[in-house]
Amino acid sequence: MAYTPVVKLxxxxxxxxxxxxxxxxxxxxDSKNGFSFVELNDGSCMSSLQVVIDGxxxxxxxxxxxxxxxxxxxxxxxxxxxxxxxxxxxxxAASFEVPGTADAETYPLQKKRHxxxxxxxxxxxxxxxxxxxxxxxxxNAASRAIHEFFQQxxxxxxxxxxxxxxxxxxxxxxxxxTTLDLEQLAKKPTEVDFTQDFFxxxxxxxxxxxxxxxxxxxxxxxxxTFGPTFRAENSNTTRHLAEFWMxxxxxxxxxxxxxxxxxxxxxxxxxKDVLENCREDLEFFNLRIDKTVLEVLENIVxxxxxxxxYTEAIELLxxxxxxxxxxxxxxxxxxxxxxxxxxxxxFKQPIILFDYPRTIKPFYMRCNDDGRTVRAMDVLVPxxxxxxxxxxxxxxxxxxxxxxxxCQLDPEEYWWYLDLRRYGTVPHSGFGLGFERxxxxxxxMVNIRDCIPFARTPRNADF
Length: 463
Ligand code: 4AD
Ligand code: MG
Fold this sequence. Notes:
Elements: H1 6-12, E1 18-30, E2 35-41, E3 49-54, H2 60-63, E4 72-81, E5 89-100, H3 116-121, H4 130-152, E6 156-157, E7 163-164, E8 176-177, H5 182-187, E9 203-205, H6 210-217, E10 223-230, E11 243-252, H7 256-277, H8 279-288, H9 293-302, E12 306-309, H10 310-318, H11 336-346, E13 351-357, E14 373-381, E15 385-392, H12 397-406, H13 415-422, E16 428-434, H14 435-443
């Protein structure tokens, strides 16, 4: 590619350098003296490059009018110091070309503020806006920092299957994958015979790579997954997607304390990396989206997370004097309002709740001796609530089998998972980070649908 990214030009280019750039026109201003200023954005950074196109440039008369907002533009010329405010350099074009025009009547992204709701309807064009460009660059920087975090610590990156026959969370929120002829089936109201289906049994999209990650952690050592997961929960909230990406580390010979320590170090390290590498974008979010973004992130990086047993959190919530939409009671799951009160108002920083009631947690979590709690942990952060869910895993074959029965799951179906306890079992732990919730935290975006390129939610799978 012969074109220099704008991010590189704005940082390094010196007056006199000859360069070519390519991108999309944000705005064009024609001066009365027969030349034009084009704000060119190529997505490599928030800032646009000012391209000055003089009337003498070949093709000016015929083509400059084609360079409207949204049109693509290639320009070559000389870098010059910019007399204008807010920019170090500009490009004086010696030639330019408009490979694709954009009809000003119909191009939906004219220069004005658009609502996020409207932008979701044009998800194929929204990456051309400042906000979505910044979100996607932050998302990219976060993924890279996540891989770096685990790679530096010797964790093996494992690709777990997307199609599976086991429901890891046991919540029955799985999307069925089938090649059965649904139209034929609908005509005969009989029970569906999954033995006739592609896999010879009912298969689904995975809700978590954890069970398979445990296989590798108990043979090759610490590992992690980073892949798409799917949940058919019918929740239309600002924190739920039907398709989201999850980061799931799994560590052998580790207990819940080690797990909490890793989760904290993980969030703080990755947040610090993004703060360092995406300064311009984060400052934009802090200015335009949420005035507390930088403060919240800096607070995360500079403070130890507070660890609170679930039972104590319930006592704090009961003593808060607040009226809750969902009642607080020992044995009930915490709702977003409770989580947010704890992390935003009470502790005013990230916290880790642990030792949850066994009745509200999945079968695989290690049972405590009290008979009523399990070694579960959730990391809660301001504005989001739960961002990580994890646990120490039940490594004792007899207790795990008992738990499967208790959760009304068939141990036969989990034979291979139980084998890991039958042969060389070890204490082990892991957690899952919801990647889009993390992007929400980093950017201050209110709605998780704006933190993934194409959101899948109930009644919506366009694009
Ligand atoms: O707490 P969850 O359900 O935990 C697991 O899936 C474990 N198997 C993880 C593990 O121990 N390996 O989900 C983990 C995280 C949540 O804390 C949340 O951040 C995110 O995944 N999450 C969602 N994000 C977006 N949309 C949804 N519908 C989500 N459901 C969970
Ligand atoms: Mg959870």
